[in-house]
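Q: Got a minute? One more chain.
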Amino acid sequence: MLRPYLMPAILILLTPAVSFSDDDPAPQKSLSKGKTATMDLDTPLLKPWTGPYDGVPPWTSVRTEEFIPAFDIAIERADQEINAIADNPQPATFENTILALENAGQDLRRLESMFFVHASNLNVGPIPDIEKSVVPKLSVHEDSIYQNQKLFERISAVHDSDAMKDKTFTLAQQRLVDDLFKTFIRKGARLSNSDKARLSQINTRLARLFTEFSQNVLEDEKGYVTWIDDEAKLTGLPDSVVDAMASAAKERSNLNGQWAVTNTRSSMDPVLTYADDRGLREVVWRNYYNRGDNGDEHDNNAIISEILKLRAARAKLLGYPTHAHWRMEPTMAKDPQAAMDLMMKVWPKAVARVKEEVADMQTIADAETTAGQSIKIEPWDYRYYAEKVRKDKYDLDLNEVKPYMQLDKLREAMMWAAGRLYGLQFKQVSGLPVFHPDVTVWEVSKADGSLAGLWYLDPFAREGKRSGAWMTDYREQQNVTSEIRPIVSNNSNFVKSGDGATLISWDDAVTLFHEFGHALHSLLSDVKYRSQAGTNVARDYVEFPSQVNEHWLDTPEVLNQFAVHYKTGEPLPQELIDKIKKASTFNKGFDTVEYLASALMDMKLHLAGDADIDPDKFERETLAQMGMPSELPMRHRTPHFAHIFSSDSYSAGYYSYLWADALTADAAERFVEAGSFYDEEVAKSLYQNVMSVGDTIDPAEGFRRFRGRDVDTGALLRKRGFPVE
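A: Always. Here it is, folded:
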């Protein structure tokens, strides 16, 4: 995943939002002009960042009690700047309107960046309540911008100007003006005053519901830890996993002789893959997949129903058939049918492959059981028996690979590959503020020695950190009056080793490279305007650079140098590398169906319009209609599907991973055709047409320039080992 919050075309982050009960008072507008009682708050939260690298976030100076008053002040300042642009008596120009908007609200942007890192990475203590207070204010502020009639008239004047018509503006300027104009319309700029008020009510309520949804999932991740006090239940688990479970138990209870499986994917996955104890696998599986669906105070079903209703009402108000049509208008796919066509091209092939995979697993399960003890493959069995099939078919046990998957060495591998491809160099720096002791900071330099940016790495799970992996921009690249380099971070939830090297799975290593691809997309950005920098591209294009970056993990150059045994230092044996390559399409039925079930569910939920939806019932019935195999679950069940219910960002957009993977597979084939994933000419083209250009050109055109033609979706099927018509 890219990151939890996305920068829209203008000033503020699209934040996840919070939830209040229906009888909460309506959120108040930000401070009106002249009300500056708290404007003298002296806090680093409201000051430009200082120090080297054009300033860095002052993490160690954060006092959480200052967040709420700081937001009140930052919103007031942003309101004043917006009003000054809207009220400018001079005729509207690119400089005094579009560029002025680019530069407005800097205090608020910096503050949001710092707060939402706390909300994602340090969501403990007062942070949840602060989020509930802050996010409705941000929603009101955002609506006040998009609904500012004078401001929209000025943007319209620039959009309709001769400079746009005769293309006096550069292509980047044309795209910036056009995107801003269309975004204002999509956000309600042309609505009547009464409809604008209704839209604001919907957005504010959604903001509250989004945050309540997120907080509920986080509470279930914290609350449903699987405790083990019988060592016999650990049979089959690798020593590194057992050590990490012991470390997790000690961290949470300070008790020796116990083990804990935390309720995150990185903790759950190895238990389901290797634990011989079927009962343990089932408990861990149910804890993880029932997040947000336990019928208690943290149950998300009612919240989801309301979110869907409000989204449908908003779409109708804005003139769109459904939320899916509204969300997809600015994407590469453009409309839901294009996304559905691609997904349904792959779905039946993936389901057919799952049936083959299950048959292979069932054969092994039958052979292992004694008379009267037959086992039908259940979702908590799939990973376990898949590994047995992998070993049987390919003589490959990924448990043998894990001792070579050291987190620190894989980090070095990513940096080395980025150096070979793009000339980037990484140097760890000390003395800069960090928000947690686990965080390290790296200075990134270009091939000519100039600064590319800063990269922060926060790799380990902790209480209050949301599950999964993501990338965040603290500051985006821009070059209007001077070169400002980006500050980015990668965040993961690996389970820290109690002592020595932290070992991760092969799948986790793929995720590590994926998220680093997002970071590279920002670090390599070379544009003029912040709103077009790095990852500020279409939702179904943004995963393309990150998915491409996964391909460098299994190159011989990386594996031979960096996949070394944590005890002996010996490289991963060529025999194992050959087996990994040979098994590259193994279990792709599971991977594809698990993902596509969630993507299709997302789209079907948001194409249902204003229907009354019981999420659990809708999920069961839709999966049955789709022919979902009973032996595996959706990757994200609806009650904890944070991609689509913690904000609007991936709603009706989870298909994006498949859409981007079609581009990725075709792009990878260009490297294969060139004879190496380190081919200098192909790497240069990838940099020039994809990694550096941000949203300054149409993404389809950028891909076309890189590949020499439009995308061949057959490459996606070939990559997954599915038949191609």
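A: The first helix runs from residue 67 to 86.
Q: Perfect, thanks.
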